[in-house]
Amino acid sequence: MRSLFALVFALLLCACDQQAMIDKLTPQAESAHARQLLASLAHGDAQTVWAELEQPLRTPQSLSMLQQLGKLFPAGEPKIEVVGAHTNIINGVGNYALTYQYSYPGHWLLASVNLRREQDKLVLQGLQVQRLPAALQDSNRFELTGKPALHYLVLALAMLVPLLIIYALVRCIRTPLRRKWAWLLFIALGLMQLQLNWSTGGWAFQPLFLQLLGAGFVRASPYSPVILTVALPLGAIVFLWRRKALLAAGAVQAEPAAETDARE
Question: Membrane-crossing residues (predicted)?
């Protein structure tokens, strides 16, 4: 239970730190321009947004699509949150992918804007808007109720595997062994990796992977799902299984040395 509380507490701390990092990494001028474009779209001015598109994208079809996207915005003033900000600058050309969550009473939208800056001019490369069934932070909240058995199994392993590895590391440190450093490294690293998306239940398996302490979690932002990861603690299992044999082998090797010292 303490491990579970520690995991939840760590998730809360990471959420705070990650939101601060998103805000820090968001390019302010580009974000202001993107939000202005979305505001124009929300107020039915698709023509202004269309005029910002790079030349090859300015077609009657793209104008019609922008008009349809504008109809997704409800009336009223939304709460706007930056949920993603990616900047890529190559040879002086900046590319910016900015994602926002628009929250209205009972309605949520996810809007993405792609911009390119050339010679101090911003050009719109793409814009997407989609409805959300709920706020991202609610949809991706780490909750224990109503999950399938696989979720609880992976969660239990994510708490137990590190404890097993730490226990094996302590026993290894206290055991007289030859090449102890190699055993410590073997024990500390879990082999292979199972990844579980806590929100969707999607999973992935990485056969070639080494994970420190055999488990962990990843959350890209407070709006992203928690990804639990678990690896096979092969080193810990092998060491605990062979510990007595290793001790016996060490004692047998030590006897001839002791007899030699006694003769001298």
Answer: 149-170, 182-200, 220-241
